[in-house]
Amino acid sequence: MKPGELLRLVWMNIIQNKFKTIMTSIGIIVGAATIVMVIAIGKGGKEDVADQFKNLNAGAIDISYDGGTDERNMESGGESTGGGGMAMPQGASGGFSGNAGNAGTGGGFGGGAPSFGGDFGGGGGDFSPGEMPSGGDFGRGGFFGGGNDMQERMNQENITLDEEDVDDIETFAAGVTDVTISYTTRSSVDGGELEEAATYTIGGVKENYADMSNLSLALGEFITEADDENKEKICVLGASVAEEIFGSAIEAYGSVIYIDERSYVVNGVLETMGTVSSGISPDDSIFIPYATGVKYLVGTKVNPTITVLAEDVNNIDGVIAEVTEVLAATYPNAEFTFEDAGSKMEAAAASNEILTMLLIAMAAIVFVVGGIGIMNVLFVSVKERTNEIGILKAIGCSQKNILFEFLCEAAAISLIGGVLGVGASLLVTPVARYFGVRVELSLSAFLIALLFAVGTGTIFGFYPAYKASKLVPVEALGAET
Amino acid sequence: MNIITMQNINKSYRMGNHSLHVLKNVSLTVEKGEYLAILGPSGSGKSTLMNIIGCMDVMDEGTYCLDEVAVEHAKEKELVNIRNRKIGFIFQKYHLIPTYNVLQNIVMPLLMRGMSLNEAREASMETIEMLGLAERINHKPNELSGGQQQRVAIARALVGQPAILLADEPTGALDRNSGKEVLKLFGRLHDMGNTIVMITHDLDVAEHAKRVVRIVDGELFEGKEA
C-alpha cells in the first residue's frame, strides 16, 4: 500500500473520531505544553542571569569581611553589605590572637598562640617584606615602619575594610587595574512625589564606582572625587528610584530629596541597568559620596566591600591570591570572602539548571502518563476495530501495513496533541508572565515539544499496533466487538 | 484446468483436553469458471473449509494448490498476496468498513496492491456501474440496505479480478428479494467466466450453483443428495 494512501486512511480515521482523538491526546497536550514552558522558563532564567550580570565586569572581584556579627549594627538597625564588622571577644586585648580559622560566619577570634600583638609591628618594621608581592620594603608610610598605626588597626574592635586597604591593594597587589570601596545601607527617604517617607537602599560609593560597574547616566553626572572629599550632600538616583520618587528622570534631575531628613541634590540619574553590582542593584538604589555617607548616615557602623578589577579575567585566582596576601599583612588572621563575577554567574546558572532539571523531570512524568493514556486508548481501539483488522487482512492487507497504520494513528494523535499543547503554552505564557515568571518562548522549544509528543505516542503506540498486526485473520473476523 | 486442488485435508481444533476433528480427509477440485456450492448444516465444518480455501486458516495435513500455488508451503507474505490477488471474499455479514464510504470500501484491495486512489477509482468504475452502485459511491455502509451492502461487498471482491469468488452464506443476512437479486448476480458473474465457490446451509440457494458438494461432520460428498 502506498504510504500516501495509508496516511489518507489514518487521517480519515482521525477526523471521524475527533472527540476521541482530542480526549486521547490530553496527556500529550499537557506534556507538550509543559515541555515548551520548561524550556521557555529555563531560557528566561538563563537570560535573567545574563541580564543581571551583563554590565558586570568579568574581572570584578568583591572582597568583604563577614567573620563576625556586628552587634552595634544590628542594634541600630543599620544594614551594610559584607555581613557587618566583627566584634573582638572580651579579653583579646592583645590584638589578633591565634588563628582566626573560622572566618566566614560568626565566631570571634579564638585563642591559640601566637599572639602577634607584641612582636608584629611593635618592633618597628620587622615585618618580612619578602612575603609581599612587590618583594620590596613594605613600609607604607608609618603603617609597618612606625608600628603605631598598625597597632591601632590591630587593636580595633572590628575589622572594617577602609580606604587605606584600597590604597594597599592598589599599591601592592599585582594584576589589578582599579580598586574601589562601597557600602550599602537602608535609610528613610522623602521628597518628590512621595506621600510619606520610604526606605531605600543607599550606596556609598567612590567616583570610580560607575566605571567599574559599567553604570551609564541618563542625566547629569556621577559622584566626583571632589564630592567625596568635600562630603557633598549630592546623590545619583537609580532609574527605578527616580521614577518612583519623581515620576521621571527629567523631573528628578536637579531636585532635592531628603535622606535621613537631610537634603541631597540629585546630581544625576542612571539609565536602567537591570543588573546587580557589588551587591547593589543600581536601578533601585540611591548613590551618595562614600565619605558623605560615613559622616551623615553610617558612621563607623559599616562593613564595606572592596571591589578590585583584575587586569586579566583569566587570572582571577592569581589576583585573589595577591589581594589575600596584601590584606593578610594588615589583618594576619582574618579570612575574607572573595566573590568574582564568574563565580556569581556560575552559581546563579547552576541554581537555574537545577530548576530546569526539576521541570524537565516533571515534563517527563507528564509525557509518560500521556503515553500510557495513548497506549490504553489504542488497545481499546484495536479491540473495537478487531473486525476491521480481520476484514483488511482478508482482502490482503499485510501485517506491516496494519502495524504502520496503527503506529501512524498513534503518532498523528500525538502530533495533534503536541500542536494543541504548543497552542496551550501560548495561552499559559501571559499568565506566567503576569505572575512575574520570565518566559522566553522559542521555535526550538516548540519543535522539541512536538518531537517529544510524536516520539511518546509512537513508542507507547507500538505495542497495541504490534498486537493488531499479529491478529489471526479468521479470529479477528469472527470476533464479537 | 483446476483452480483449486485439495487432497486429504485434515483440520482439528483443541478444545481443552480434547481435540475436535473438524475436517476429515477432505479432497476437492474446482475447475476454472465453475460455480460450486458447498452445502452443509451448521457445525459441519463448511466455514473451516472456506477459511482454508481462502487462506485465512491453515490445515494440519494435506495439500492445497490454488491457481498453481502450493498453499501449504506458502509463507505469511505469500498468503497475504494470495488473499489480495487470487481470492475475492464475500461474507454473510458483508464485513464492510463502517467508517469508509462505498468507493473506499470497494477500492481497498486495489490500494493494497499499491495503486493510488485515483488509479483504483478508475479501475473499479466498471464494476461499480455493473453492480448499480454508481449513485452510492459516497454513501457510508449504514446508509445502504442489506442488499446494497452485499452488492458493495461483491464489488469489493470482484474489483481485483481474483481467481475465485469465495462467498460464505452470501444471502444469509438478506431478505428473500435481496437474496434472489444476489443469486441472480452470481449467475451473471458465472456467465462472465468467474469461478465461484459458495458455502451455504440452504439447499434452495445451493441449487443456483452448477455443482453442489455436501459436507457432513467434516467429510465431503459429491452431489446435493445425502
What does this structure look like?
The complex is a heterodimer of chains A (481) and B (226). Helices cover 49% and strands 14% of the residues of chain A. Chain A has 481 residues and is α+β, with helices and mostly antiparallel strands. The radius of gyration of chain A is 34 Å and the shape is elongated. Helix content of chain B is 34%, strand content 29%. By secondary structure, chain B is of the alpha/beta class. In chain B, a hairpin with a 2-residue loop joins strand 1 and strand 2. The mean pLDDT of chain B is 89. Chain B has a six-stranded mixed sheet, with helices on both faces. Chain B starts with a strand and ends with a strand. In chain B, helix 3 (102-112) crosses helix 4 (117-130), helix 3 (102-112) runs parallel beside helix 5 and helix 5 (146-158) runs parallel beside helix 6. Chain A binds chain B through residues 1-2, 4-5, 8, 12-13, 16, 387-388, 390-399, 401, 472-474, 477, and chain B through 51, 54, 56-57, 76-77, 80-81, 83-85, 89, 91, 95-100, 104, 108-109, 111-117, 156.
Quick rundown:
In chain A, 49% of the residues lie in helices and 14% in strands. Chain A contains 17 helices and ten strands.
Strand percent estimate of chain A: 5-15%
Instruction: State the low-pLDDT regions of chain B, or none.
Output: none
Instruction: Give the overall silhouette of chain A.
Output: elongated
**Spatial strand sequence of the major β-sheet of chain A:** 2-3-8-5-7-6
**Which class of secondary structure composition applies to the elements of chain A?**
alpha+beta
Average of pLDDT of chain A: 77
